[in-house]
Write a structure and sequence with these properties.
By secondary structure, the protein is α/β, with parallel strands linked by helices. The chain has two domains: 171 residues, Vaccinia Virus protein VP39 (Rossmann fold, 3-Layer(aba) Sandwich), CATH 3.40.50; 62 residues. The protein is built from six helices and twelve strands. The strands form two sheets. Strands 1, 2, 3, 4, 5, 6, 11 and 12 form an eight-stranded mixed β-sheet that branches. Helix 1 packs across helix 4. The two termini are 28 Å apart. The structure holds S-adenosylmethionine. The site of S-adenosylmethionine (SAM) has 19 residues, from loops.
């Protein structure tokens, strides 16, 4: 699982507070919004702070939108954002959650699929997707392509950035990581320093890099079929050196 280490990246309220300042609306959300525009119901697995699910409910007027995430601190932010009152937020694990309903669209964005570190966990998430897809419904998720390279940051300064946090003011943010080619797991720590107070917050997580061929086999075994493989969130096709591995598919 992702949430291991001295302090977990998503579970702690002080760290969840930084998530939206670092992770901005991007092409992944645009792509999912376009898919959601054709749907009547949407399930967002690993919804985090709920920016996408809330926008789907708020701007597309879709009545049945559900977001699932195990991190209560992330869901607390989700509930309070505009449109958050129109989404059913479930504190749950994408490997095991069973909602007893099916959806037109199931999404996992922000590389949530990579938090599942073992084939068993990955198969469990794919089973959850299959269990919640309507006939004719679609799924989409992203996983970074290992062939595109893994960037390791050995020191705080390797990836230091300054950002302006809406509540906390100027913040220094960094990311330190190391990749184990044997397990294909990247362990990383995100840290933040609030300039005005000097206070530091940091937490760690792990992500796995799964090759496209292995993903394709697991997807088939889960009773799903891929209609197209994208290589980025702008809709470009997957190729061996693509940035992303993004299957778009449905029930077999
Ligand atoms: C990088 S964030 C992505 C959040 C959101 N989808 C986005 O695009 O901004 C990863 C999310 O995966 C969630 N996560 C970790 N383990 C999970 C699990 N077992 N089931 C579902 N979500 C999980 C974390 O709590 C976190 O909110």
């Amino acid at each position: 699982m992702s949430d291991q280490g001295h302090k977990t990246l998503y579970g702690a309220p002080d760290l969840a507070l930084f998530y939206d300042a670092v992770n901005r609306w991007d092409a992944d959300f645009d792509y999912c919004m376009a898919l959601a525009a054709e749907a009547k119901s949407v399930l967002d697995l690993g919804c985090g702070t709920g920016e996408l699910a809330s926008a789907i409910a708020q701007h597309l007027g879709i009545q049945r939108v559900t977001g699932v995430d195990p991190a209560a601190a992330m869901l607390d932010i989700a509930r309070k954002r505009p449109g958050g009152d129109k989404v059913a937020w479930i504190e749950g694990d994408a490997r095991s959650v069973r909602l007893g309903e099916r959806f037109d669209l199931v999404v996992l964005t922000g590389h949530v699929f990579q938090v599942f570190l073992t084939p068993d966990d990955q198969r469990a998430v794919l089973a959850t997707i299959a269990a919640h897809l309507d006939r004719g419904g679609r799924f989409i998720f992203d996983s970074r392509n290992l062939a595109n390279g893994v960037k390791e940051n050995r020191t705080r300064n390797d990836a230091m950035q300054r950002l302006n946090h809406p509540q906390l003011g100027e913040v220094e943010a960094w990311n330190v990581s190391s990749y184990d080619p044997r397990t294909r797991v990247l362990t990383y720590e995100n840290g933040y320093r609030i300039i005005s107070t000097g206070q530091e917050h940091s937490g760690s997580a792990k992500i796995h890099y799964t090759p496209q061929e292995e993903l394709a086999d697991m997807i088939t075994s889960a009773g799903l079929v891929v209609e197209k493989w994208l290589g980025d969130w702008r809709g470009g096709p997957y190729h061996s050196g693509a940035k992303e591995i993004i299957p778009v598919g449905r029930l077999a």
